[in-house]
């Protein structure tokens, strides 16, 4: 059986927004190693910037090395390696914060996509998201680790109530705030033409999923689509930093 060769292209954009004095988002990717990551830091002073940058650097460093010698089957090994990268990032942030009291309590969200041929693995902690657009179908892959989203999933709060809630900014999981962290893992199969969007909540708090879908025009370059998303979020208020990484599966 002949397996089609799958290629990936990517582009990224980050913006301060219109209200924040600094950018606590960070992103990184390597098409060569098949890893793409977005983080949204939190903490006083420059702590958020440090946490998000540490997480991205640690993830990319993990993927710059060889595969583990005891690698299992391709799909299982892919998920295991992604989780190892997340745990390493968590430990790096936690250790740094323990060494410097001014960084105490810093943390970051993380959403990461890894690609091995047609196998995709999405991992997230916090409320930074991954979406997939396949033809006319646009769906959120990740589940937010936020207080209001968990209340919605439990049936205790409506979407309208969540939008008005004073607790809508509270996240229930983050990298670096504790010695250990639990991440969600979503294994997927890629198809030619799939478009994945990794983004911080500076995008999703400003514009709806329907608006995001409308702004993703397959005929346009990834750079143009990313710039269009950021411009829309800023026009809608730009209350937070905005970061988008777009990954396209080429046939």
Structure description:
This protein is α+β, with helices and mostly antiparallel strands. The strands form two sheets. Strands 2, 3, 4, 5, 6 and 9 form a six-stranded antiparallel sheet that branches. A five-stranded antiparallel sheet has the order 1-11-10-7-8. The chain has helices spanning 47-63, 74-99, 147-153, 159-164, 201-204, 209-215, 222-235, and strands at residues 7-15, 25-30, 35-42, 107-108, 110-116, 119-125, 129-134, 137-140, 184-189, 195-199, 242-250. Helix 1 runs antiparallel to helix 2 (74-99). The chain has one domain: PPM-type phosphatase domain (Phosphatase 2c, domain 1).
Overall 3D form: globular
Distance between the termini: 17 Å
**What would you give as the CATH superfamily?**
PPM-type phosphatase domain
How many strand segments? 11
- Helical fraction equals 25-40%
CATH C-level category: Alpha Beta
Main beta-sheet strand count, sense and barrel state = 6 strands, antiparallel
Beta-strand percent range: 25-35%
Which ranges are low-confidence, i.e. pLDDT below 50, for 5 or more consecutive residues? none
Second rung of CATH, namely the architecture: 4-Layer Sandwich
The run of helices and strands is EEEHHEEEEEHHEEHHHE
Count of helices? Answer: 7
Mean pLDDT: 91
Structural class assignment: alpha+beta
Number of domains: 1
Give a concise summary.
The protein is of the alpha+beta class. It contains seven helices and eleven strands. Strands 2, 3, 4, 5, 6 and 9 form a six-stranded antiparallel sheet that branches. A five-stranded antiparallel sheet has the order 1-11-10-7-8.
